[in-house]
Write a structure and sequence with these properties.
single chain, alpha/beta, Oxidized Rhodanese, domain 1, 2 domains, five-stranded parallel beta sheet, 9 helices, 12% strand
Amino acid sequence: MFTTLIGCDSLLDAYQKPDWLIFDTRYDLTEKNAGKQAYLENHIPGAIYVDLHDDLSRPPATNKGRHPLPTEDAMNELFSELGIQADSQVIIYDNVSGAFAARFWWMLKHMQHQHVAVLDGGWQAWLNAGGPVDSSNEERKQGVYKKASKTHDVINIDQVECARLLIDSREPVRYRGESEPIDKAAGHIPGAVNRFFKENLSESGSFKEKSVLKQEFEQVFGNIPAEEAVFYCGSGVTACHNLLAAAYAGLALPKLYAGSWSEWSSDPAKPVATGA
């Protein structure tokens, strides 16, 4: 079974298996309906569309970020709506090298679902591999999913300052405070270091080799155990790309600050750092 990434060759051999579920998470932060429209034009046969805003950020939520993380009950409800069973092999893809798919991957891992993987290279890799496409609007099939969430893989805003290592997953110009196109303040949480999530990718848009990623993350972590490192981003989405990459590299899964910069920067009492 697949638990981090899956290649197109493996998916081509197995995408029609009845116990495999494929989800399309394409999304555009500037045009909310663009992902669903792209899905309706063409997608991997059998894939069901999952929306970042309406599904992966649905209320009630655990934080006040821009894409707030649903509560345990809300995630159980969502996964049941999607027909996910305890033994389902879940495959997720998008068109931005896993930036949105990784959020769904992490949510399932948070809810203790083991068999979930992101398509390496995403939609573009599927097309380049000559994978079949379909334009049917696949309906969700109700299932029963009821698990408890993990308790130590996510932190809230009050726990941030206790983190031994805090890592910002946004692009360097936003981390340094030179540009902030979305949130209320420019900069980063004091003490955080920067690991832009796109550093996980090769020029082709696929993930780097495991050994390369392992070496890079170990350099970032230093003497801090991977499971004690905390990643954040703008809204708790692309930070999950770093979490996926660390797990793919064979390291223990770090923690997520789900509220991320959008929550932190909206509180005028919270300090802000700029520069490198």
